[in-house]
Amino acid sequence: MKNSPSLLPLLRSQLQGGLLALILLHPEREFSLTELARELGASHTAVLREVGRLVEAGILSDRRVGRTRLVTARTDTPLARPLTELIAVSFGPLPLLTEALQQVAGVERAYIYGSWAARYSGEPGPPPADVDVLVVGSPDPDELFDAAERAGRQLRRDVNVHRVPVTVWEAPTSDPFLTSVRDRPLVELELNRGDRS
Q1: What is the pLDDT of residues 148-183, one digit of tens each?
Q2: 93-188 in CATH: which number?
Q3: For the chain: N or C, fewer Cβ within 10 A?
């Protein structure tokens, strides 16, 4: 995570991009440092350092409730809107698609693949023009399409959803599409629907 992320090379790290996406794209929420560390799969110390930098820069604000430090997006600065839009189109697919697909019954698992996943995994290249999502399960196609459309509007790019049943995804296959998806970077969406401890 020390190298600049391929999705938005002007940021310091993948952690910074993920942190900004989680907080800026949910300006109505306050996050504890523990919650942020868990959501981002990062150490508490790394999150504490990054939050400190962003609070000092006036991008985030924080407050204490007892021993808990709560962090939220600052929406009252001229930087808030353009930075949020930039983060949405670069790092936004992970939190926004996770949130959208958690609301769709029948989605067992979901992965972002293609150029966005490649950039997220550190492969250099041009910014992704769209976001490709593989949904494993048996969701209603219309509900899935509506969720993808809503996410696409927020991300300002097409979200292409490909749906496969659990049995097809878990079985060995000679399907060229699934073989190519498995052979390239995949970013799994954490869809445990808020039941994490």
Answers
A1: 999 999 888 999 999 999 999 998 878 899 999 999
A2: 3.30.460.10
A3: C
